[in-house]
Specification:
The structure holds two protein chains of two kinds. By secondary structure, chain A is of the alpha/beta class. Chain A has nine helices and 14 strands. In chain A, the strands form two sheets. In chain A, strands 6-5-4-3-2-1-14 form a seven-stranded mixed beta sheet, covered by helices on one side. Chain A has a seven-stranded mixed beta sheet with strand order 7-8-9-10-11-12-13. In chain A, β1 and β2 form a beta hairpin. The longest helix of chain A is centred in the N-terminal third of the chain and has 17 residues. Chain B contains 19 helices and eleven strands. In chain B, the strands form three sheets. Chain B has a five-stranded mixed β-barrel. A two-stranded antiparallel sheet of chain B has the order 4-5. Chain B is globular. The chains are: A alpha/beta, B alpha+beta. Chains A and B meet through α1, α2, α3, α4 and α5 of A and α6, α15, α16 and α17 of B.
Chain lengths: 280, 558
C-alpha cells in the first residue's frame, strides 16, 4: 500500500471517529453564516416578566434599548431569550427612577453586557445601588429630561417627562420617573415608568398622546396611576401591567382594572402572560 | 426450573465470593493500599464521630494505644502458634491463619486510627473552641476589614463573598483573631468584587442557621467559616492600589476571568454559563427553571466545579493525538491538563483533579497495571492527610470517583461492548469513557444534589459526546478571540450550537416531568451508600480478568 493511501485511510478514520464533531461543525457554520448575518429585522418591543418590577426591551437589528431591569437577575435570562446570540451590546439603557425594583437588575445588566449609554434623570435618593451606579458608571451616565430623543431606523423615542426644575419631583421619587413616548412604524407606545396621577395630569397637554396603541401602565397598575383622566385622554387600545405573582401590594389594583374595563382597554399582566412581545 | 435458577445464583455468589476474597488478599498483600484505604475510611469515621459525641481526643488516644499493643501481641502470638500447629491438621491451620489475618487487619486499624486521631484531634478541638467563642461576637454593629479570599459566588439575590480578616479585630471588648474564622459576606450582586480586594464591611456578625433541614452551620464549618454578615455596608479599595493574597493566584484568576468575560461577550445565557462551567468548572447561575431542568435530567455534575472536566480532557487528549505513539500521547495529555490547570486559575478542585488525572496517565506510561491500583488510594490518602476535611468536599469526591470510574468501570464497559460488536469505534472512544465516569459518580451526585434521575444515563449518553468538543472549541475560541475574531466567532458559533443542543435535550427531559426522586438530607446519604455498594460489587464482579484461577493469588495461596 502506498503512503498516500495510508494517510487517506488515517484521515477517513479520524473523520469517522469524530462524526459528531463534524456534524456540529457544519451546523455551527450554517448558524454563523445564515443566522449571523445582519438581517433587517422587524422592530419589536418586549415587556419582560421580571416579577414585581419593570423590564422592557425595544430592538431592531442590532440596536437595543432596555428600560429598567427589575429587582433581581431574571432580566438577564429574559434578555438572553430575545437578543441575537452574538449580540452582547446594549445601545441605550434607560433607568426611569432609582427604586430597587427597577435598578437592581439594571446594575446586573451593566455587569454582564456592554452598555453604550445610560439615560436617567438625576434625583436625590438614598439607596446603595443608586450610589453605586452614580460612582461606578459615571462615564456612561447621561442625564435626560423632557425633549431628549432617540432615533434608529423605524424606532423613534422621546422623553416627555420630567421637565427640568419641576418643583413636584421630590419627595415621591416615582413622580421623577422618565416617561417615554415611542413611535414605531406609526404605532404609538407610552411607557409611564412608575409615574403617578400627579404626573399624568401634566401629560394631558400633549396632543400627540391621543389614541395610544400600547400603554405601559404606571406604577405596576397600582391605584395611584392610570387615572380616568389619562385613559380618557390617551384612549389606549391595550395596556400592560408589569407585576409579580402574589405581590404584597395587590397589583394590579382592582380600581385600576375597573378603569381599564370602563374605557374598554384590554389589559395584559406579565405574571399571567410571561414575556409579552409585540412585533411591528 | 428452580434448580437452574438456584444453580445460576450459586454460581454468581461463588464467583463474587472468590473475587471478594481475592481482592481482600490483594489489598492486604500490598500494605500501602491497606494503609491508604484504611486511613481515608477512618478519617471519615473519626471526624463524624468525634464531632457528634464531643469526646476529647485524648480519651480516644488512651483507648487506642492499648488496643494497638493488644492487637500487635495477639497477631504475633497467633503467627507463632500457627507455626506450631503447622504440623497438625489442615483446617486448623486455615482457621488460625484467617484469625491471624483478621487480627492483623485489626492491628492496622488501631495503628492508623491513632494516627488519624493525632492528625485530626487538634483541629477538631480548635474548631469546637471557636464554635463556643464566636457566639460572643454576634450582638452589636461591627466594623471589619478584610480581603476577599475566594472568588465571589453569584446567587439569584445577591452574591456570597468569603473574606479573611486583615488583622485581629476587637469586637465587644474581645479579640476576634485573624486565624479564627473566615467571614461569609452576603451582599448585593451588582458590586464588582475581585479576589484579593481589600474591603471594609460594616454590619452585624451572625451565626449561620440551619434551614429546611439543611445544616448550614456544618456546611460552612467544613469551609472554616463560623460567622457571616448579611447586607453590610461595603466599601472597597481599588485593586490597582492595594491587593492582598497570593500574587500568582490573583493573576491567574484574573486571567481566567478575562477569558470568561470573552465567553460572555459572545454567548448569551444559559450557553455562556454552560461553557464557563464546562471549560473552567466555574460555578455560575442558571435561571431557576433551567437549573431545575439540569437537575431533573441528571446533568448538574457536568457544570459543577468538580474537576470532572479534567477527566474529560484526559480522554480527549488521548483521542485527538491518536496518531502519536502511546507514551507520547500520555505526555501530551499531561501537558494539556496542567496547562489547563494553570489557565483555570489553579483552583484547588482543578489541581486535585489534575493530580488524580496525572496518576491514571502515568500508570499507562509505566505500564504496570498494579501502579495505578496503588496510586489511586495512595494519592487520595495523601490528600486527606494534608487536609482532613477534604473528604466532605463534593468536588474531591467527584474527581476521585471519576478516576476510579475510568480505571475500573471503563474496562468493563469496553469488554461488554466488544462482546456485542467489534465495530463502531467511536462508541468506544466517545461514549463509553464518559459513561463510565457518569456511572461511577452517581453516588456522589446523589449525595450532593439530593436527587436521582432515571434519565441520568440516557441524558448523559446523549450529551457527553459533545462536551469534549465543546470544551476544545471554547478554549480555541477564547485563544483566537484577540488574534483573529472571525475564526473565533465561527468556533463559538459551533460551540453555541452544541450548547443549544445541550439546552434542548435538558429541557426536553424536563418537560416529561417525571422520573426523578428527591431525597431528604439523611436519606440521600443512605441511598448514596447503597448505590456505592451496588456499583462496587458490580465492578468487582464484572471486572475483566483473563484467568479467574490465577488472579489475586487465589491459586497460589490455597
Amino acid at each position: 500500500m502506498s503512503s498516500t493511501t495510508i494517510i487517506l485511510k488515517q484521515i477517513l478514520n479520524f473523520l469517522w471517529r469524530n462524526l459528531l464533531l463534524i456534524i456540529f461543525l457544519m451546523a455551527g457554520l450554517f448558524s454563523v453564516v445564515v443566522l449571523g448575518k445582519d438581517i433587517a429585522k422587524q422592530p419589536e418591543i418586549v415587556f419582560f416578566d421580571v416579577g414585581q418590577g419593570d423590564g422592557i426591551l425595544i430592538q431592531q437589528d442590532n440596536f437595543q434599548i432596555v428600560i429598567d431591569g427589575g429587582a433581581d437577575d431574571t432580566v438577564i435570562y429574559s434578555l438572553s431569550k430575545h437578543l441575537p446570540w452574538y449580540d452582547k451590546t446594549i445601545e441605550r439603557l434607560i433607568l426611569t427612577h432609582p427604586h430597587q425594583d427597577h435598578l437592581e437588575g439594571l446594575l446586573l445588566i451593566l455587569k454582564k453586557y456592554e452598555v453604550k449609554e445610560i439615560w436617567y434623570f438625576p434625583v436625590e435618593y438614598e439607596y446603595v445601588g443608586y450610589e453605586y451606579l452614580l460612582k461606578e458608571y459615571e462615564t456612561l451616565l447621561r442625564p435626560k429630561k423632557a425633549g431628549d430623543y432617540i432615533k434608529y431606523r423605524d424606532i423613534y423615542g422621546a422623553v416627555i417627562f420630567p421637565f427640568d426644575g419641576d418643583p413636584h419631583l421630590v419627595p415621591n421619587v416615582n413622580n421623577a420617573s422618565l416617561v417615554m413616548f415611542f413611535e414605531i412604524k406609526g404605532y404609538k407606545i407610552l411607557l409611564m415608568g412608575d409615574a403617578e396621577v400627579e404626573v399624568e395630569k401634566k401629560l394631558l397637554e400633549y396632543g400627540f398622546l391621543h389614541n395610544i396603541d400600547i400603554l405601559k401602565a404606571g406604577h405596576h397598575c397600582s391605584k395611584t396611576a392610570s387615572s380616568k383622566e389619562l385613559l380618557s385622554f390617551t384612549r389606549p387600545s391595550l395596556s400592560v401591567c408589569s407585576c409579580g405573582i402574589l405581590n404584597k401590594f395587590g397589583h394590579p389594583h382592582y380600581e385600576t382594572v375597573e378603569n381599564f374595563r370602563n374605557f374598554n382597554v384590554q389589559y395584559l399582566v406579565t405574571y399571567e402572560e410571561g414575556d409579552i412581545k409585540f412585533l411591528f | 426450573m428452580y434448580l437452574r435458577i438456584w444453580r445460576i445464583l450459586k454460581g454468581i455468589f461463588l464467583k463474587l465470593r472468590n473475587r471478594l476474597v481475592g481482592l481482600y488478599r490483594f489489598i492486604l498483600d500490598y500494605k500501602i493500599i491497606t494503609f491508604s484505604i484504611l486511613y481515608v475510611l477512618l478519617n471519615a469515621v473519626c471526624i463524624s464521630v468525634l464531632r457528634n459525641i464531643k469526646v476529647s481526643y485524648t480519651i480516644g488516644l488512651i483507648v487506642t494505644i492499648p488496643l494497638v499493643m493488644f492487637s500487635y501481641f495477639l497477631k504475633n502470638r497467633l503467627r507463632r502458634s500457627s507455626e506450631v500447629i503447622l504440623k497438625k491438621s489442615e483446617w486448623r491451620i486455615k482457621l488460625v491463619r484467617s484469625i491471624g489475618t483478621i487480627f492483623e487487619l485489626f492491628f492496622f486499624v488501631s495503628v492508623i486510627g491513632s494516627l488519624v486521631l493525632v492528625r485530626v484531634g487538634p483541629f477538631l478541638r480548635h474548631e469546637s473552641e471557636i464554635e463556643g467563642k464566636v457566639l460572643r461576637f454576634t450582638a452589636s454593629f461591627t466594623n471589619v476589614v478584610g480581603y476577599i479570599s475566594d472568588e465571589p459566588i453569584e446567587k439569584h439575590r445577591g452574591q456570597h463573598v468569603v473574606v479573611k480578616l486583615l488583622e485581629d479585630t476587637p469586637v465587644e471588648g474581645e479579640q476576634l483573631l485573624r486565624d479564627d474564622t473566615l467571614l461569609l459576606i452576603k451582599t448585593s450582586s451588582f458590586y464588582k468584587l475581585h479576589l484579593g480586594q481589600l474591603c471594609q464591611f460594616r454590619g452585624t456578625l451572625e451565626i449561620p442557621e440551619s434551614f429546611e433541614g439543611f445544616d448550614y452551620g456544618a456546611y460552612l464549618r467544613d469551609r472554616k467559616i463560623f460567622l457571616l454578615m448579611n447586607n453590610p455596608i461595603v466599601e472597597c479599595e481599588s485593586t490597582a492600589i492595594t491587593r492582598k493574597g497570593s500574587v500568582v493566584r490573583n493573576w491567574l484568576v484574573d486571567n481566567k476571568n478575562s477569558m470568561i468575560a470573552t465567553i460572555d461577550k459572545v454567548l448569551n445565557e444559559p450557553q455562556s454559563s454552560l461553557l464557563a462551567g464546562i471549560i473552567f468548572g466555574q460555578k455560575r447561575l442558571f435561571n431557576t427553571a433551567f437549573d431545575e431542568a439540569t437537575r431533573v435530567a441528571g446533568l448538574s455534575h457536568i457544570v459543577a466545579a468538580s474537576g470532572y472536566n479534567v477527566t474529560i480532557l484526559v480522554i480527549v487528549a488521548e483521542r485527538i493525538f491518536f496518531f502519536l505513539p502511546k507514551k507520547w500521547r500520555v505526555i501530551v495529555g499531561l501537558i494539556v491538563i496542567w496547562m489547563f490547570a494553570i489557565l483555570s486559575g489553579l483552583s484547588s478542585s482543578i489541581v486535585r483533579a489534575c493530580i488524580m488525572g496525572s496518576i491514571s496517565l502515568l500508570a499507562i506510561i509505566f505500564g504496570r497495571s498494579n501502579t495505578v491500583h496503588i496510586a489511586i488510594p495512595l494519592a487520595s490518602a495523601l490528600f486527606v492527610l494534608i487536609k482532613p476535611l477534604i473528604l466532605f468536599d463534593i468536588g474531591f469526591l467527584l474527581s476521585v470517583s471519576a478516576v476510579v470510574g475510568l480505571t475500573y468501570v471503563l474496562p468493563i464497559l469496553i469488554d461488554i461492548k466488544q462482546k456485542i460488536t467489534k465495530k463502531l469505534p467511536f462508541v468506544e472512544n466517545n461514549i463509553l469513557p464518559t459513561l463510565a465516569c457518569t456511572l461511577s459518580t452517581i453516588p456522589v451526585s446523589i449525595l450532593s444534589f439530593k436527587t436521582i434521575s432515571i434519565w441520568a444515563v440516557i441524558s448523559n449518553t446523549l450529551i457527553l459526546p459533545i462536551i469534549d468538543t465543546t470544551m476544545f472549541l471554547g478554549i480555541f475560541g477564547i485563544m483566537l478571540w484577540n488574534i483573529f475574531k472571525p475564526f473565533a466567532f465561527i468556533l463559538f458559533g459551533v460551540a453555541n450550537m452544541q450548547l443549544k443542543y445541550f439546552e434542548f435535550v435538558t429541557n426536553l427531559i424536563y418537560k416529561l416531568n417525571w422520573g426523578q426522586i428527591h431525597f431528604s438530607d439523611s436519606s440521600a446519604k443512605v441511598v448514596s451508600l447503597v448505590f456505592l455498594g451496588f456499583i462496587l460489587l458490580l465492578t468487582i464482579y464484572l471486572y475483566p480478568i483473563k484467568n479467574e484461577q490465577y488472579n489475586y493469588y487465589l491459586k497460589t495461596d490455597s
